[in-house]
Design goal:
single chain, mainly alpha, globular
């Protein structure tokens, strides 16, 4: 290991430990750590703003910025309060029913939109209805984030690692539906059952508050119907743009920014008021995190891990599949799964195409995708949806700590990864 690798790894581990202990604001931690990496030369100063491989991923940052602006405008229509009251009434104030409803909404929408966008839309709704019922919003938000990472794994566009993997392996939208959708659907159903036990202490039912919710009129929450119609029209176009972005050859970030601009222009809302809704701290945290991980890529640490894995598994596809799935889930739980997927994809490509039987080795891509996607539930910083969802929760006064999320995330990751391995083993090895 070179001196630059040692320095990069030491700074990264120290920063991650500070983020985990929450002794210092995590935005300050990543800014100091990324600055230290630049000053010491382990992060290339000339590339951190321009390189897709070792720099800030502006596609992610700008996609988040655009959708935060969209959500900021949508909030002014009263649609979130409407959905909150509607969900509360449909669940009759029963906490577990309410959690299942929100998880269903999240998991069904995540494969169509990206899971970060879904979290941006659903978390404010959750806060509204939980405030009405006088229950803590944290368990519901955590369950939604976990459900979004599971549901988003079903399609090419549902989770950022899938986009990276699909592009590298030449996999189509339909390929993901055939290979990923069945196991994702099964895992989600079992996860819904699991949450009944994970959050069992949080399901206190209060008939008084439930009755008060049932008397509310959700239609009264819509204060400006014309504004709502304009927003929903633009939002529909944005969703269509996301779905067709490969056909249009336009990046989702561009679609989000243009959509946000159009929504602001056609609704005539106060721009300053909308920009105040943007979680700037979350965006800065992402930028710092990308620089930190980029330094690990730049110094060869992540590639060394991948090469070691190749040397360990050789041409044993069963061992390679298990290592990829469980290894990706483990590593993806501590690294943001977007740069991790970017780094590992070329290594998986070598495993698939240079193995003894490339025709039957294609299933390694699915093992990799399942591990990277489900590993995103491992810790509070493992996936974009986690960081965004926790940031929104904290801004609304329902604070979720690093360990407050991670203790549920670890269980969910182990649970879902074992189910995924059974699926991969039976479908691609035993029944192949």
């Amino acid at each position: 290991m070179t001196m630059s690798s040692i320095i990069a790894l030491a700074i990264f581990v120290a920063a991650f430990a500070l983020i985990a202990t929450e002794k210092i604001n995590k935005v300050i931690v990543v800014l100091v750590a990324s600055a230290a990496m630049v000053v010491t030369g382990v992060a290339p100063a000339n590339d951190i703003f321009y390189s897709h491989k070792v720099g800030v991923d502006w596609d992610v940052i700008l996609l988040l910025l655009g959708m935060m602006i969209v959500v900021g405008v949508l909030k002014q229509t009263g649609i979130f309060e409407y959905l909150g009251i509607w969900a509360g009434k449909k669940s009759k104030g029963r906490p577990y029913r309410l959690m299942v409803m929100f998880m269903l909404i999240t998991a069904i929408a995540s494969p169509i939109l990206d899971n970060v966008t879904i979290i941006l839309l659903v978390v404010p709704v959750t806060v509204v209805v939980c405030n009405r019922l006088h229950v803590a919003a944290q368990p519901y938000i955590i369950a939604e984030i976990l459900a979004s990472n599971i549901g988003g794994a079903a399609t090419l566009i549902g989770d950022p690692p899938n986009i990276i993997i699909g592009n590298r392996a030449g996999l189509s939208f339909n390929d993901f539906l055939v290979h990923m959708l069945p196991i994702v659907a099964l895992t989600f159903v079992l996860f819904v059952v699991l949450t009944r036990f994970l959050f069992r202490k949080e399901f206190d039912y209060n008939p008084e508050y439930a009755d008060s919710v049932m008397t509310l009129q959700e239609r009264r929450a819509i204060t400006d119907r014309a504004l709502l119609i304009k927003c929903l029209t633009v939002l529909t176009l944005i969703i269509a743009g996301f779905t067709l972005h490969n056909v249009l050859h336009v990046q989702p970030a561009i679609i989000a920014l243009i959509g946000a601009l159009v929504m602001v222009l056609v609704t005539g809302v106060d721009v300053e008021e909308v920009l105040a809704e943007v979680a700037w701290g979350t965006l800065v945290f992402f930028a710092g995190l990308f620089i930190m991980v980029g330094a690990l890529v730049n110094t060869g640490i992540i590639e060394s891990i991948g090469q070691w894995a190749i040397g360990a598994v050789g041409h044993d596809y069963t061992l390679a599949g298990g290592t990829l799935l469980f290894g990706s889930a483990l590593v993806g739980a501590f690294f943001d799964n977007i740069p991790y997927a970017t780094t590992m994809a070329p290594i998986v490509d070598v495993l698939v195409n240079e193995g003894s039987d490339p025709r039957n080795g294609g299933f390694l891509w699915w093992a990799f995708a399942l591990g990277a996607d489900f590993g995103g539930n491992g810790t509070a910083v493992a996936a974009s949806a986690n960081v965004v969802g926790i940031g929104l929760a904290n801004r609304s006064g329902h604070r979720i700590t690093f360990w407050g999320f991670t203790k549920y995330g670890i269980i969910t990751t182990i649970f879902s990864t074992i189910i995924a391995w059974i699926y991969v083993y039976l479908r691609y090895i035993v029944l192949a």
